[in-house]
């Protein structure tokens, strides 16, 4: 049911967007022949006709469109068979004042951008509505308290002295504002991440040579039956990342050299050993041993607030599971919106902050700091949005819808043909050059980019389905 609610909310965003185009078209007396909710893929249903516009709903709900009347001269490009299929009411004389292409550039710009403007207005409305109804807005920060120890130890955190009711403030001297940030440190500091730190590898290689003078060449296969003395286990450098990585705005890239399958198997055998006897089928070198010995864990320091005093819990070892092994109490931090001034200022603050985050994430994608494989679409939004409504309530679902509305506005204004921003680009070129772009050429360019967008949509749907199957969200 919560996922159905998300589908309806997303459909409402599309409806609002298309109403913007439709309303602006009617204001400037542009004939709209079709208004569709969803894309004309699969079953379609004609709802009703209002004036010159026929309203449709399509089974493929994600999307929408507004179709303008075409000039009768464009019928000349159709053969006789296709001409019989068209509705003559959707074509007007070439000099008709109801044709979109006969309007001034300023009017066209308003029509083209009206959908985006409506999405922005709708986002502001949703956020303000939440501020009025719930008297609060999220600050995107959380208070995190230790509640108890897990039944299965996945770290030595209990032995290091953390206690129930401790409030977690920072990890490795980096302030923790959300549960995601805390989990990030546990996951990426764990024992065995299949990467060896370069400095640790070099140190282990030197010690292996010193401890085993009979084995001189680091890249030669160690003879069968040889007993190799191993250096003491060393810890990796504690994890330090940028704030962008910690907040999930930039992809985390593991530091070090990735181990081979053979080195991973060797690592699992020699960890915490003093000596290792080479067997017949090992075929390993000192380099393999050095790499295997250099993938351990990154010690974690957690700073907690206990009885109004800050206490450092140091040398926490996270085991293979990548979990601290404590149950937590998480409290959302909200910003109160009790006065009219609060409602207005805090709503715009919330929209500004979240929109800036979206724009930054988009820039990270274009600059390659976030992988295209991390892009997700409507399937993920429906799943995650439904989960958010189920776990956090309708407030967070409505706010997510507001942010999706802003995201639609941003994406639609990208200067890509087939999007609203592409139409704006063509209009600006026309304004600067004083010439209309060749109709046939512009249609070919638009169709080409529309085809690319379809490919992108398919790949994003694949990402969504793969993430669902692999339970990434």
Structural features:
14 helices; 46% helix; two-stranded antiparallel ribbon; 4-stranded antiparallel β-sheet; 473 residues; 20% strand; alpha+beta; single chain
Could you spell the SSE succession in H and E letters?
HEEEHEHEHEEHEHEHEHEHEEEHHHHH
How many helices? The count is: 14
The termini sit apart by: 18 Å
Q: Return the average pLDDT rounded to an integer.
A: 87
Structural class: alpha+beta
How many DSSP-defined strands? 14
Shape: elongated
> Residue share in helices?
40-55%
Largest sheet: 4 strands, antiparallel
Output the strand order for the largest sheet: 7-6-12-13
Structure commentary:
With 473 residues, this protein is α+β, with helices and mostly antiparallel strands. It contains 14 helices and 14 strands. The protein has helices at residues 2-27, 80-85, 105-134, 157-160, 179-188, 198-211, 243-246, 261-270, 286-293, 340-366, 378-392, 394-412, 420-433, 439-469; strands spanning 32-50, 53-68, 70-71, 91-92, 136-149, 167-171, 174-175, 195-196, 227-229, 257-258, 275-277, 300-306, 309-316, 326-336. The strands form 6 sheets. The protein has a 4-stranded antiparallel beta sheet, covered by helices on one side. Strands 1-2 form a two-stranded antiparallel sheet. β1 (32-50) and β2 form a beta hairpin. α3 (105-134) runs antiparallel to α12, α6 packs across α9 (286-293) and α8 (261-270) crosses α9 (286-293). The longest helix has 31 residues, at 439-469.
């Amino acid at each position: 049911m919560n996922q159905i609610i998300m589908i309806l909310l997303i459909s409402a965003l599309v409806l609002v967007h298309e109403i913007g185009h439709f309303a602006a078209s009617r204001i400037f007396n542009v004939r709209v022949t079709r208004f569709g909710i969803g894309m004309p893929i699969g079953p379609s249903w004609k709802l009703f006709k209002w004036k010159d516009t026929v309203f449709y709903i399509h089974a493929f709900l994600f999307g929408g469109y507004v179709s303008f009347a075409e000039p009768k001269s464009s019928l000349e490009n159709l053969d006789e068979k296709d001409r019989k299929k068209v509705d003559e009411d959707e074509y007007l004389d070439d000099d008709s004042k109801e044709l979109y292409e006969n309007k001034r550039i300023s009017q066209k710009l308003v029509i083209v951008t009206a959908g985006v403007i409506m999405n922005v207005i709708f986002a502001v409305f949703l956020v303000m509505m939440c501020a009025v109804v719930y008297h609060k807005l999220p600050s995107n920060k959380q208070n995190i308290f230790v509640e108890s120890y897990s039944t299965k130890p996945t770290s030595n955190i209990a032995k290091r002295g953390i206690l129930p009711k401790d409030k977690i403030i920072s990890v490795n001297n980096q302030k923790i504002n959300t549960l995601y940030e805390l989990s990030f440190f546990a996951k990426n500091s764990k024992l065995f991440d299949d990467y060896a730190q370069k400095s640790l590898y070099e140190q282990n290689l030197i010690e292996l040579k010193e401890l085993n003078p009979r084995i001189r060449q680091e890249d030669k296969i160690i003879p069968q039956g040889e007993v190799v003395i191993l250096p003491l286990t060393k810890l990796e450098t504690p994890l330090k990342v940028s704030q962008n990585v910690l907040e999930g705005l930039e992809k985390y890239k593991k530091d070090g050299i990735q181990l081979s399958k053979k080195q991973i198997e060797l690592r699992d055998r020699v960890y915490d050993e003093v000596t290792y006897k080479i067997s017949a089928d090992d075929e390993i070198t000192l380099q393999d041993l050095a790499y295997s010995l250099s993938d351990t864990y990154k010690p974690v320091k957690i700073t907690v607030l206990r009885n109004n005093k800050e206490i450092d819990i140091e040398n926490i070892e996270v085991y293979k599971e990548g979990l601290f092994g404590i149950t937590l109490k998480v409290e959302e931090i909200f910003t109160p919106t009790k006065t009219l001034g609060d409602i207005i200022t805090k709503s715009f603050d919330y929209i500004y902050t979240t929109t800036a985050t979206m724009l930054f994430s988009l820039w990270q994608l274009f600059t390659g700091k976030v992988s295209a494989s991390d892009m997700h679409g409507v399937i993920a939004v429906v799943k995650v949005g439904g989960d958010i409504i189920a776990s956090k309530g309708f407030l967070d679902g409505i706010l997510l819808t507001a942010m999706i509305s802003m995201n639609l506005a941003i994406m639609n204004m990208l200067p890509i043909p087939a999007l609203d921003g592409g139409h704006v680009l063509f209009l600006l070129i026309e304004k600067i050059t004083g010439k209309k772009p060749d109709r046939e050429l512009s249609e070919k360019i638009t169709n080409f980019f529309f085809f690319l967008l379809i490919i992108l949509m398919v790949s994003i749907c694949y990402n969504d389905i793969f993430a669902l199957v692999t339970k990434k969200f």
